[in-house]
Design brief:
The chain has helices spanning about 20-30, 60-70, 90-95, 105-115, 130-140, 145-160, 175-185; strands at about 10-15, 35, 40, 55-60, 75-80, 80-85, 100-105, 120-125, 165-170. α1 crosses α7 (about 175-185) and α5 runs antiparallel to α6. It is globular and about 45 Å long. A hairpin with a 2-residue loop joins β5 and β6 (about 80-85). The longest helix is centred in the C-terminal third of the chain and has 16 residues, at about 145-160. Helices cover about 40% and strands about 25% of the residues. It has seven helices and nine strands. With about 190 residues, it is α/β, with parallel strands linked by helices. Strands 2-7-1-8-9 form a five-stranded parallel beta sheet, sandwiched between helices. It has a four-stranded mixed beta sheet with strand order 4-3-6-5. It has a single domain, classed as P-loop containing nucleotide triphosphate hydrolases (Rossmann fold), CATH 3.40.50. Bound molecules: adenosine-5'-diphosphate and guanosine-5'-monophosphate (5GP). Adenosine-5'-diphosphate (ADP) binds next to α1 and α5.
């Protein structure tokens, strides 16, 4: 297997409602050495098990504002009261190396990039249905009940935006969903 997908890589933008399975799918995609994860910066506190520099760059609000001012992000957005941003520099390098550069970002961020004409494959990960989405958020055990309700309300708004993406992948069966995304960026 060659460790590049072509002379120039491809940006793969994954978003979708909270609990739809984005993180699970991204972890699977990252088992392929031709895929590199875009580590976002965020002002939120790390969750148990999250590692600084691997899952996110956990930074202060002051530092985040400074990075915005310096134009260090290709996009940034506020999600549930915290700031998130995609650093510009590592992206250019990964694309030059011929890799798939994987962004797991929220719907506002993804549509910002698309509106700016940033070239990439934009994929919306959809849950099979909203009852299943609630079940997954509850069994994940990372959020309080009121946070889950907020995420579900937002999920309904985000779901309407799926028509603006290049592709919608329904995450019912994980293997099938991962296979579908891999084919969309030419990994299979
Ligand atoms: P997101 O990153 O979109 O918020 P997660 O990847 O954290 O979502 O998934 C939410 C929960 O659903 C997790 O507990 C995960 O293990 C589970 N999950 C993900 N994909 C599937 C699937 N295809 N079938 C059943 N459960 C799934
Ligand atoms: P969480 O706090 O659960 O890790 O992420 C909350 C939301 O922020 C998710 O929808 C995630 O995709 C999104 N997110 C993570 N990094 C970025 C980023 O750099 N930019 C944008 N716009 N959203 C992000």
């Amino acid at each position: 297997m060659s460790e590049r997908i072509g002379p120039r890589g491809k940006m793969l933008v994954i978003s979708g409602p909270s609990g739809s399975g984005k993180t699970t799918i991204c972890k699977r995609l990252l088992e392929d050495p031709r895929v590199k994860f875009s580590v976002s910066a965020t002002t939120r506190a790390p969750r148990t098990g999250e590692v600084d520099g691997r899952d996110y760059h956990f930074i202060t609000k002051e530092r985040f504002r400074d990075m915005i001012a310096r134009g260090a992000f290709i996009e940034h957005a506020e999600v549930f009261g915290n700031m998130y941003g995609t650093p510009r520099e590592p992206m250019e390098q990964a694309l030059a190396e011929g890799l798939v550069y994987l962004l797991e970002i929220d719907v506002q961020g993804a549509l910002q990039l698309k509106a700016l004409g940033v070239e990439g494959v934009y994929v919306f990960i959809a849950p099979p249905d909203f009852e299943e989405l609630r079940r997954r958020l509850v069994t994940r055990r990372t959020d309080a009940p009121e946070v889950i309700e907020r995420r579900l309300k937002k999920a309904e708004d985000e779901y309407r935006e799926r028509v603006k993406y290049d592709h919608v992948v329904v995450n019912d069966d994980l293997e099938r969903a991962v296979g579908e995304v891999r084919r969309l960026v030419g990994l299979d």
